[in-house]
Amino acid sequence: MVNHKSWPRRCASLRTAGVMATVLFGLTTTGDAGASTPDNVVLLWNEAALQGVRDSQLGPPMTARALAIVHTCMYDAWAAYDRVAVGTRYGGGLRRPAGERTLKHQVEASSFAAYRAAVDLFPASRVSVFDPLMARLGHDPANITTDLGSPAGVGNVACAAVLSFRHRDGSNQLGDDPAGTPGVPYSDITGYRAANEPMDLTQPFDASTVRDPSRWQPLRYVNSRGDLVTPGFVAPHWGHVLPFAVRSGSSMRSPTGPAVYGTAAYREQALELLDINAHLTDEQKVIAEYWTDGPSSALPPGHWNLFAQNVSHRDHHGIGRHGIAADIKMFFALNNAMFDAGIVAWDNKRFYDSVRPITAIRYLFHGQRVRAWAGPFRGVQLIDGGDWWPYQLPTFPTPPFGEYASGHSNFSAAGAGVLRLFTGSDRFGFSAVIPAGSSTVEPNAVPARDVTLRWATFTDAANQAGLSRRYGGIHFQQGDLDARDTGRACAEIAWHLAQRYFAGAA
């Protein structure tokens, strides 16, 4: 067991014969694995990209897009050396002759493609992460050749085509869209304005700030650096980003949307969350924290990439041609499915602009006594409903975007779906050991003893990820369950298209 007193934290790997343990966000994840083998180039670049995510602190949908781009660039470069597969931009136009289709060429081309993509998406990590990895692999990052007779040239050309396409996909990655904020990457290009005034969590609840109880409300609070902040809605334009496989973000938009103020369903969902919050067990608190994936982590898309690393070690066994081909395809399909899931989730978030539990519960029950978790180390008490707090750190009480639909549920259902489809089985068989007292919300007290979370299947893990946000007071039931459905649909659609690329039929 590895005993870390804080999470999230960077993944590190420990391996023993027959068993792998991965320190995942400060927790120990275990599962069946074959003999110890070094990471192949796909896993090395995946972990490098995840460190880029941690360093950049991008929002969840931007993270999903970035990971999809890195692995699409790697896939397109690798496909040039495969006998059948075609790339996403050039099709079979980069296909190299049989004499060049060696493992060495695949590895080098994929590394150059990954490097160019990673530097474009996470420029702040170039010197600390990406350049050292290139040096470790024996490649010169300054080699910008476009000669298709060299693997470096294939990687550079393949990646350039993907980046050129994605720079104009509606994400505003470069911050150069005239409708956005000049020079600010990923800035909104839709002119979104919050319907409600910010709720100041450093002050008593003020119901007058809630102009529309059905709509999202910004929060003002003191963050982990001690700064008073009021984060805006993250990426309200994201539903307009061009997906990988789904027709559009709006093509999966809910026809009904979430419950609205004044209906019985609105009050019932708030009461349900109040009841969950008042009866949290240590295991439920652990689940809420394990899946939080907040700032400084690899976020929900990164969490499923770490699971995929474990699947690679369990199933692919080694750095040979088979292992690299399997990982190239798995991470390509996985990350593009989650990319699409993020677009679908954010389309619903922006269209319905829905209220978070912290606003709905405080608005409904302020001035009334409710039984609830009263804050760290205070247990469950009768409190004023206007003081209700989700089971979250006060430095990050609720993510800054609408409630409906759950990004965690969408990303996780998509990730689980692809891993199930790719492996041909829902079997996962992994677990996470959470050491006693390792909570960041209630440190040294929760959990009272070690807790082991086990996932027999990928679906089990995805469902727990969705449920964790209800334990944490972040989402209502409908926002969780509806997003699981669309996440699974994104997995099916992305997997179908990925298979066409693999078979040379796209």
Structure description:
This protein is α+β, with helices and mostly antiparallel strands and 506 residues long. It has a domain at 41-167: Vanadium-containing Chloroperoxidase, domain 1 (Up-down Bundle). The chain has helices spanning 41-56, 60-79, 103-121, 126-137, 151-166, 264-278, 282-290, 299-315, 321-352, 357-365, 407-423, 458-471, 477-502, and strands at 12-16, 19-24, 27-32, 199-200, 219-222, 228-229, 369-373, 380-384, 427-434, 451-457. Keywords: Signal. Residues 69-218 form the DUF6851 domain.
Structure summarized in a few sentences:
This is PAP2 superfamily protein. By secondary structure, the protein is of the alpha+beta class.
Which labels suit this protein?
506 residues; alpha+beta; Vanadium-containing Chloroperoxidase, domain 1; 5-stranded antiparallel β-sheet; 13 helices; 10 strands; 10% strand; PAP2 superfamily protein; DUF6851; signal
Structural class assignment: alpha+beta
Gyration radius, rounded: 23 Å
Report the CATH architecture of the domain at 41-167.
Up-down Bundle
Question: Per DSSP, what share of the residues sits in E-state strands of 2 or more residues?
Answer: 5-15%
CATH superfamily grouping of the domain at 41-167? Phosphatidic acid phosphatase type 2/haloperoxidase
**Biggest β-sheet description:** 5 strands, antiparallel
Number of helices: 13
Strand order of the largest sheet: 1-2-3-9-10
Q: What is the β-strand count?
A: 10
List the helices and strands in order.
EEEHHHHHEEEHHHHHEEHEEHH
Give the class-level CATH name of the domain at 41-167.
Mainly Alpha
Could you say what the CATH topology of the domain at 41-167 is called? Vanadium-containing Chloroperoxidase, domain 1
| Overall outline | globular
Distance between the termini: 46 Å
Q: State the helicity in percent bands.
A: 40-55%
Mean pLDDT: 92
Domain DUF6851: 69-218
Keywords: Signal
Domain Vanadium-dependent haloperoxidase NapH1-like second helical-bundle: 330-504
Signal peptide: 1-35
